[in-house]
Structure formats: C-alpha cells, structure tokens
Design brief:
Structural class of chain B: alpha/beta
Largest interface: B-C, 62 and 62 residues
Number of strands of chain B: 15
Bound molecules: adenosine-5'-diphosphate, magnesium ion
Distance between the termini of chain B: 38 Å
Strand order of the largest sheet of chain A: 1-2
Order of helices and strands of chain A: EHHHHHEHHHHH
Strand content of chain B: 15-25%
Strand content of chain A: under 5%
Low-confidence stretches of chain B: none
Radius of gyration of chain A: 16 Å
Number of strands of chain A: 2
Oligomer: heterotetramer
Chain lengths: 213, 332, 332, 213
C-alpha cells in the first residue's frame, strides 16, 4: 500500500492551517454558546503558527516534523484545545520518530497516540462530550478499516464518518468538562466546539470534501 | 469597541512593555516579555511562588508579583492561558533553591499547561507543588467543588502563601497555607455588562440593559441565572447568603471580605454593597477584619462585582496582615 | 442603568455609610456623614488640608483623606457641589490651630460654596487659604488659564501640600507648595463613553461606539472635538503634545506622570498608553520619575483616560516621594 | 398701595416649589446642551426643600422667613444656581429683616439685593449670559414701574416682560461663565438654563400665567 512522504505531511499541515482559518467564525459561534467564545481566535492562531511552520523546509524525520509542529502550536495557542492538539501532535510524532515516510499502519498508530495523549493530558474520557468523542472513534475506525484491508483513501473516509458520528452522538448529551461543564444542561443539543474542530482537522488531513447534507 | 489600543494582536505585548517601563525597579522579564518576575528574582533560600493565566484581569495575575506575594507570573493573551514554555521560563528564573509553588485558577488550558511545565521543571530538578484555586461557588455545587472556577479568592492565596514563604517556610508548608486559605475562601460574582476581548472585537456575551447574571465568571462564563437587575441590597443579600451557605462559618468567627469590581463598576457602588454585607454579617455574629474594597480581579471593562469571604484563624490573620508591596498592591 | 444601587437619592449617603463601616480606624464624619475627616482629626499643630466636591470621582475627593495628604473633605451628591455648611463642618473639625488650606477644583458651585464657608470660618477665627485646581488644558486656552477646570492634577496638589504640612510648615508655606505644584501641573483627558448619574438615570451625554472626545471633562464637559476613535498611540501622542505645548518643559527636566482611567478603561490600556508616553517623553530628553498608573480621579463608569504631567524640582520631588496612607492611596 | 403678608410670601414659596418641580425636564434639557445636565435635579431638590420649608408655620418676620428659605436651599442644592439663588434669598431677606409685611418698595429693594448678591457671589456681570441677565433687568423694570406709579400687578407684569427680554437678548450670545463658558461658541443661540430658571421663579413669585406664544 502507498506510503506518505514528508512532503505530503507538510501538505497536510498546510491544509489544516487553511481549514482552521476558514472555519474560525463557526468555531467562535459554537464556543460562544457553551464556552468563552475564543475558539475562533485560537483556530486563527493555530492556523498562523502551522502555516508559518509549513513555510520552512521540513527535515527528513517525519516524526520530528510532526512533534515540532505540536511545540509550535503550544507556543502560539495554549487554550485547552490548543494545548490538547499540541499534545496530540507531540505524541503522534514521537510514535514515528526517525521515520522518513509513513505507512498506513504508522498513521493508525499516530492517531491512537494522539487519542491517548489527549486523554492523559486533559483527563477526560469518551462520553464527556469533548474532542475525544471525535478522535477516539476516528482512531478506532481507521485501525479497523486497515485491518479489514481497506485502501488508505477508503480507511480515511471511514475514519471521518466515524468522527462525524462521534460528534453527533454526543451532541444531545450534557458537557462534563472544561468551560462547557459549567454551562450544564444548557449544553444539551449543542455541538461541542472541540468536536467540530476535530472534524475540521481530520477532514483536512484526509483531504476530504465537506459534508454536503 | 470603546477601547484604547493599537493592533489587537499587540495588546498584551504592549501592555507588558509599558509595565516594564513603568516599574523597572520592581519587575523584570524572564527570557520572554510574557514571563514577568520580581526584579530581584531569584530570592535565594525562599520558596518561590508562581502563577499565570490570561490577561485582562489586572491586577490579577501579574499585579501581585512583588515582595510579600508572588515571585513570577506567566502571562497569556487576553483570557488565554500562557504556554507551558512561558511557565517554565518563570519557574527557572524564580527558583531560589527551595522549590516553586504554582497557585492559579482552575481552568482547563491553564491546568494542562502548568502540568506540562511542572513535568519539564521536574526534568531540571526543580521541585514544584501545585495548588488550584476553585473559589467560585456559582460554578458547581458543593458535591462537585473540584470543578469550580478560580476567581478573586486567589488574591488571598497569593497574599497568605507569599507571607508564609517570606517567613522562611519550606515548600510543603507554603503549599499547606495556600490550601488552607483556599479551603476557607468562597467567592460569588454578578455581571451587569460584558467586556470586549480585543482580538474578538465584540462583547463576550450580550445582556440586557437592565439585566444581571448572578454567578457569572470572570470571562463571561454562565452563572446561576439571568434575571432583572435588582437593588444593590437585594443583590448583596443573595450573594452573601450563597457564600455563607457554602462556607458555613460559626457565630463569633472572624472573616475578611473582598468587595471586588469587575472593572467598570465604580468604588462608590462597592461601598454601597459593603454597607449591606457588613450589616448582614454583623447580624450573624460574624466579625469583619481588614476589608478589601476595590479592583482586585477584573474582566477589563465589565460592569459587576464579586464578593469573597475568607474565614480567618490566628495564623491566617497574621499572614493577611503582613506587609506586601507590588506595583498594584501596597499594604503597610 | 448598569449600576448597583438602591434608591438613587441615597447613593452618596449609603456609600459614605459603607466607607465609615469599612475604615473606622482611618475615617470619621464631622456632624454630618457628608463631611469626612481623618479619624484622628484635628491633628494639633499641623496645617489642615480640606477639599470637597461632587461624588462619583473616587478616589477623588475623599479617598485622599488620610495621613500625609488631606485632613477632611466635604462630600456632595454625584457631580454636585457640597454645601457651605458641610465645608464649614469639615473646617471646624480638622482645624489644628495652624489654619486650613482649601484645595479643590475650579467649578462654579464649589467656588461659591467654599467662598461662603471661608467667610463663615473667618467669623470663627479660623484662618483659611484657598488654592484652586485648574489643570485641564483642554478647558480654556493659556490666555484664559484662570477659567480652566480642575481634574486629576489635584491629586498631586493634595500629595505635595499634604507632605509639606506634615513637615510642620505654616499655612502660607503649605499654600505656596500647592500653588507651585499646580503651576507645574497639566492634565488632558479623552472620553470614550458617558457615565450615568444615578439621580438622572440616563447617560450624561451620548457618543458613538467608535467615537472619542479629546479634552472632555470629568463630568462630561465638552472637550476640544468629537472625532473617530484613533489608536492608543495616536491618542497618546496628541495628548502628550498638548501637555508639552502648555507646560513647555526643557530637555533634561524631570517629570512625574499620571495615567488615569476615568473608570471603565482597564489598567491594561493605561499601560499601553504609558508605553507610548514614555517613549515620546524620553525622546524629548525628559526624565520620568515615579509614574502613577491607575484610577485616581474617575467619572464612575466612564470609559477614557487622562494624562497628567508635573514638572519636578528637588523640593517637589522629595514631597512627592514622602509616604502617605489613606484607604485608597498607600505609598511607602 | 397693597402690602404683601407673610402668608402671601409663604404662598409664593409654595408656587416657586411647584413651578420648579413642573419644569425640571425643560431645565435638564437646557443644561444638557451647554452644561452638565443637572439643573433639573437641582430644581427638584430646590422644590422639595422649599415645599418642606413652606410646610412649617412661618415666623412673623418676613425678612427672616425669606433668608432662612435661602439657607434651606443651600443645604439641599449647592450647585452653581442653587448657591446663587440661596444667596439671593439670604440677601433679599436681610434687606427687610424684622418686617411683618412687605410694601411694593420693599419688594423692589429685595429684588435689587438679590441681583447684587448674585453678582457678588458669582462674580459675573450682566451680558455674561447667566441668570443675572434675567434678574438684573427684572429688578430695574420693577423699580421703574413703581416709580412711574404702577400698581403691584402691573409692575410685576413689566418685571416679567423685562426678564423675558433679558433672556432672549443674551440667547444669541456666547456664554462666558461656569460650565457653559467651556462650551464656547456652541452656546450661541442656546437659551441659558439659569435664565430660564430665573423666569420660572419670577413668574411663580408674581403668580403670572405662562407665555402662550
Ligand atoms: N480536558 C479536556 N479534555 C478533552 N477535551 C477538552 C478538554 N477541555 C476542553 N476540551 C475541548 O476543548 C474545547 C474547547 O476548546 P477551547 O476553546 O480552546 O477551550 P478554553 O477556551 O476553555 O480553554 C471543548 O469544546 C472540548 O472539546
Ligand atoms: N458665576 C455665575 N454667576 C451667575 N450665574 C451663574 C454663574 N455660574 C452659573 N450661573 C448660572 O447657573 C446656570 C447653571 O446652573 P447649574 O446647573 O446649577 O450649574 P452647575 O451644574 O454648573 O453647578 C447657568 O445657566 C447660569 O445661568
Ligand atoms: Mg474557548
Ligand atoms: Mg479560552
Ligand atoms: Mg452641576
Ligand atoms: Mg448644571
């Protein structure tokens, strides 16, 4: 099966930067409804940091490249989600340290490491209605698809579908973590902004088009 | 946006530039201008106290860096956590050989970043203890007190732990004072207007001209409920009742009280509220010691106020009374 | 009206009630609660300093009653002059045998009432001298400087004359220091929003969301012109230029500067302005000593700021540096 | 010619209180345009103080009665105009101290004393566009009418007509005194709030109806 080159990773970083920037307002709106409304600003800072990062020539270590993207992210945007995403990138990069290119299995391990990293850093669990409810099922679906012999593109599509389902499944629930935890029952029925950010990022990484429905 | 600023992205950096130009004898920066420390840091042989958090709350956080209080502060963007790197820079620069105490508000971004910083400091053999401030009674019921936000009550933790550190206590003792202080500290706020985060350029929330939200947090986090603005006496009465229910002091206890403006609310109105709070507390047989009335933890130009109560024993009282001197807080 | 109050007619009386409950060790009332004096008044053998004016400007006026500054203050309703009777009550209570100096802002109502009070005090053989504060450069051109309003610069007069009185100087000497201080003091303000006088129940004036008025007075008196809100740097530059033109200091002079919020404008923005003012003044070869940055003379919840410059000589500098201690102003 | 009894003076105090209270909003409006907008509040305070004062039984000294009304006024309302009016009443009362009733000439002297008192206390002159530009011509016209043998009612009408002319003559001018002095040229064409207050008070004292034009 095809491998992913560092140039492709760099392309993904650029796509994530563009996607975050394009969806700033939507993230602000969601975060205003149940948080402090800064997620659009955070997304803008992350986008700027990532696009500046991608402007430089990458090293030939894909792992280091991803981990250092995480460090750049933390410097630029240290809100909850910024810090969790920074942690996710650092852990994912660490997982494949030294590798010049990434096989689909590497990508699966990276996604799993990101999921674990987010859970360890933030001390939240699946079902608490956070970005974990997108990343965790996405990692599982990607792994399962590969195990069933799916091609990279197909596995990516299943990953994104699982992520979307994860987001929608927790939408009716009450948020339990972070700022949204303080809002209590009023969060029921509202989309978690971190979930939405997770979707935006995963879709950009997988280079898939937006849902149309 | 009724604000005096240049490029919103430079708001915090320019503010810090002004701060260091104004108080070079008292404050300095560590590596990065977003890491503010005492000019005489590190104070050798003293436990160092660090805090950090978003900007927009002056004097919280960096306003309490100075003698008798904090040694350093990591400064985030408006209402944004600073990064773990900034916290580490502060930690390194203030460490005087007796360890570093982190005291800061219980907000997700701050907790994650301070935890990362503590892990990094540990690799450099700097011992770090952490005490989270969770004084806002409106942010979760008593059974979930661990989820509560940290608001104005943190100033008492800075003050008393700072005084303890000045006495030469070790890290565990200083941390213990911070914990004991906070165990006896409760705050509740009321907001009458939003404020505008420079980079967002619009108000953090909307609230009717004659509405209030009791229990709202210092970044506009939701409170207990939105309702018609009541009289100062009625508002004060509800706030004091909520605090007393949670703190449950006994008749004869001594409390210190903080009447804190969130920004726009003038001193005049704090004294109107203090008058009522005083009458209510005296009527319960409680004694008031050394009230703090002013702006101690703000949300830029938000209108509203918070009330904090801290139950004092002799030890806490003498630590409260110790002198302190920062650019924003002078006590003789 | 985004304000925490009860009956608007009780605003000042309740505020004073709270004040006296909060600071019984430092403040007392003379006859009427609207006449606030030092708890230890009269200080025998010291020239007594009195001021007075409308409420709504805390810490101005009564916030500077305390050791090293004022002995007493007549307190009017919000933005209203106190009566001659209240001024006389203050005068009687603070007189320590060496005469009384009145220092207050140049507003019609205040002048007429203080003049009446001085005439009455004279009948009681209390010698009174009067120094009017006229520091607002925007309120009249230099040729008509006598018509200028008194704003934040009065704090310097309180501070320096208070320090002089503490040295045992006589009435003429203390008055001379107040005059000399004010001769070298200039202020200019900028307003971004109005405030609401409780009894009026509506804003003192209207101003667009993105407008400012440079030179507006602390009760909303008209300034030089209404225009689009500019950047903090541009606003600061214009304000500093207006002050320098009027004060005309020489390169090498030492100035002290006050960056004062009118109420809602947060500390963060004052430091952004200070940064620019510092750069501008340093570039002119001027030295800055002991900046005051905060809320010293407010208009309740008005957004905006004022800048005051005071040119110091050695005498004024040492008086500025003397300690002072009031409930609102502590200097070590 | 008829004299004025203390009971009638008390009636005049009550009328002034009612008139000030009735015109609060108009005074606020005028003071907002060139001052600090508090004249309506001041008028309300003066009205309350005068009506409380008039509620008590008067002494049999008309001069003391008028002077003490001035002192009550100063305690209640010590703004510029409040203080000037307090001074006016104190001076007017002093002029007729000890008298149980007032002849038309006494009234003329009182008006003159009020005019002088206001000028001395406030250090303004006729033409500066203040209440003086109402009181000064009013006093002169009243005196002149009496000298020409007019009855009290006719003299009062001429006094009020002179006061109105005084107000209108200074309206085009630039204010030179007090808060309005800071507004400068923008005051040209605006009615001086103190002039208007003077008219309201003089009309109430004279018990004349409002202008209808
Ligand atoms: N402890 C946590 N664990 C996992 N996800 C979290 C946690 N805290 C917050 N989040 C996610 O972050 C999102 C909010 O991000 P952000 O706006 O950066 O937070 P804040 O402004 O509160 O620092 C939430 O919607 C949620 O999905
Ligand atoms: N020095 C003065 N001499 C005479 N009249 C004055 C003087 N100052 C003010 N006035 C009058 O008082 C009016 C304003 O009264 P008021 O609102 O009480 O003043 P302020 O609010 O400025 O104290 C003016 O319109 C003017 O007619
Ligand atoms: Mg957020
Ligand atoms: Mg945030
Ligand atoms: Mg006035
Ligand atoms: Mg007025």
């Amino acid at each position: 099966m095809a491998t992913v080159s560092i140039a492709q990773v760099r392309g993904a970083v650029e796509r994530v930067a563009r996607a975050l920037s394009a969806h700033k307002d939507r993230l602000t709106e969601l975060d205003q409804a149940m948080g402090d409304g800064d997620l659009g600003i955070t997304a803008g800072k992350m986008a700027a940091a990532l696009s500046a990062y991608a402007a430089d020539e990458p090293p030939d270590d894909a792992g280091a490249y991803v981990a250092q993207a995480g460090m750049a992210l933390n410097r630029a945007a240290s809100s909850s989600l910024g810090t969790l995403l920074a942690t996710a990138l650092m852990r994912a990069g660490k997982e494949v340290r030294g590798q010049p290119e990434l096989a689909p299995d590497d990508l699966a391990r990276m996604l799993r490491a990101a999921d674990t990293g987010i859970q360890e850093r933030g001390k939240a669990k699946p079902g608490d209605k956070t970005i974990i409810d997108v990343v965790h099922p996405a990692a599982a679906a990607f792994e399962a698809a590969l195990a069933e012999g799916a091609e990279l593109e197909a596995a990516a599509a299943r990953m994104l579908a699982a992520a979307l389902r994860g987001r929608d499944e927790v939408t009716p629930l009450r948020s339990r973590i972070g700022r949204a935890g303080w809002v209590g029952e009023r969060t029921m029925g509202l989309v978690d902004p971190g979930c939405e950010a997770g979707i935006i990022i995963l879709r950009a990484i997988a280079d898939l088009p937006e849902e149309t429905a | 946006m009724r604000k005096l600023l240049n490029d919103p992205n430079d708001y915090v950096t320019e503010m810090l530039d002004g701060l260091l130009k104004a108080h070079p004898d008292q404050l300095a920066s560590a590596e990065d201008v977003h890491a503010i420390v005492r000019a005489d840091a590190p104070v050798q042989g003293k436990v160092a106290l660090a805090t950090g958090g978003g900007s927009g709350h002056l004097p919280v956080f960096l306003g309490y860096v100075g003698s008798g209080m904090l040694d350093g502060c990591a400064v985030g963007d408006v209402f944004q956590s600073p990064s773990a790197e900034q916290m580490l820079a502060v930690t390194r620069r203030i460490h005087g050989g007796k360890g570093v105490l982190y005291v800061y508000g219980n907000y997700g971004g701050d907790v994650m970043n301070f935890d990362m910083a503590a892990e990094m400091a540990d690799l450099e053999d700097i011992r770090v203890e952490t005490v989270l401030v969770k004084d806002d009674v409106a942010s979760a019921p008593p059974a979930e007190a661990d989820r509560r936000r940290g608001v104005a009550g943190m100033v008492y933790a800075f003050k008393l732990a700072g005084a303890k550190a000045d006495q030469g206590a070790d890290l565990d003792e200083v941390a213990a004072i911070a914990r004991k202080t906070l165990a006896h500290t409760r705050t509740i706020g009321v907001a009458l207007s939003p404020c505008t985060v420079p980079q967002a350029g619009k108000p953090t929330f909307t609230i009717g001209e004659s509405e209030m939200e009791i229990g709202m947090g210092i970044h506009g986090e939701p409170g207990m409920q939105r309702e018609q603005l009541a009289s100062a006496d009625a508002v004060t009465e509800r706030m004091v009742a909520a605090l007393l229910e949670d703190l449950a002091p006994a008749s004869g206890d001594t409390l210190t009280i903080m009447l804190n403006s969130l920004g726009a609310t003038p001193h005049e109105e704090l004294y109107i509220m203090y008058r009522k709070a005083y009458d209510l507390l005296e009527a319960q047989g409680l004694k008031l010691h050394r009230p703090y009335i002013g702006r101690f933890a703000t949300s830029m130009e938000m209108a509203g106020a918070s009330i904090t109560l801290l139950r004092l024993d002799d030890e806490l009282k003498s630590l409260l009374d110790a002198p302190a001197h920062t650019p924003f807080f002078v006590q003789r």
